[in-house]
Amino acid sequence: MKKIVMVLMLLAMIPVGRLDAQEPPPQGQGCYLDDGQGCTVFYAADEGIALGGNNEDFWNPFTKMWFVPAETGSYGRMYVGFDDFSLQGGMNDQGLFFDGLAVKDVRVPVDPTKETYNGNLVDKAMAECATVDCVIDMINHYDMSGAWNGQFFFGDRTGDAAIIEPLNVIRKEGRYLLATNFFQSEVPAEERDQECWRYQAAHEQLEAADEFSVALFRDILDAVHQEETWGGTLYSTIYDLNAGLIYVYLFHDFEHEVVLNLADELAQGAHTYDIPALFPVNETYARWAELEGAELNDTIAARLADDVDPAVYENYVGWYPIPAEYGLMYTGAEVTTQDGKLYIHAVGDVKPPLELLPASETEFFYVNFDHAGEFTISFVEDGLIYRAAGMPELKLERE
Q1: What is the pTM of this model?
Q2: Residue range 340-366: mean pLDDT, rounded
Q3: What pLDDT, on a 0 to 100 scale, did the predictor assign at position 6?
Q4: How does strand 97-108 pair with strand 49-58?
């Protein structure tokens, strides 16, 4: 599983797949926490090359990739994830990549000697750091208390990598570093192959490699991919940290490859891709995604008003400041239109603008696959009213 929600995240043609489940070799508790919980992340560096690789194993078919151009004080970066736009992986224009892996729940105690960061610390690291050392220094500076259900893997173009567990940091010591879904601080090195079959398979290929290459990483991702009725490996990424290239694969089909140049993408400005739309139609994926996404589509259809004229959206375009007394990290909300759709973006949030769907001419809603962060917006004469479960109602006046 690669849906990571923890303190760091508050502060991831011809079809070749099949829909029947694999029978993987026996694995320890660190290979799966529950049905569908598994991912594989690894990094390796040789002279002149530094690569990061990831299999995204989950069951949400609405996978995304989005780009955040550089600004004063922040590097350009790209992220991959799902339709709630929580950060599951990514790379910045300095050759730093990260990815997250689900693990057992851990509660980190409060450290009163350290500063609290009210934002997304992963994005702060990707925006401000070029090296793993910088990331670790940043993490050590802040109080990381709270509930964790994951760990983070960072690697840079200098040859350095680390796994940040809730209570420990595992530094790269040899030519490569590898992680699945267990804490390596709790498992001796000689026992890790028995902890997870995916760890063993990737470890054997990395250890035997005379040199590292994109082709080798692709073979490893293929060897450890999952094909399950719940989805399995939804997408895979390989990051060439020196060249700034992103190799993407859909639904454990390693015959079809999309290569994106990070610099070229950032030059286009902020934008988002639906990952499946980058590829030729994969019929196996399409059938599974239609079934898995049916509930969300039904939810939208039940609430959606199909008689709202998009021309009315222009009435709501504008800037809505967020009063400081609300205690939020965002300075305001910007409402825009594009291609006949209405969007809202909380300024200061790394998430891209979110599409607002009309329930009527004045009421709009945002929903996603796992219902995380859903909300309703009502436009009134002098502003908007924001409503979300578990939050007080917010009234924002338009400037």
Answers
A1: 0.91
A2: 96
A3: 39
A4: unpaired
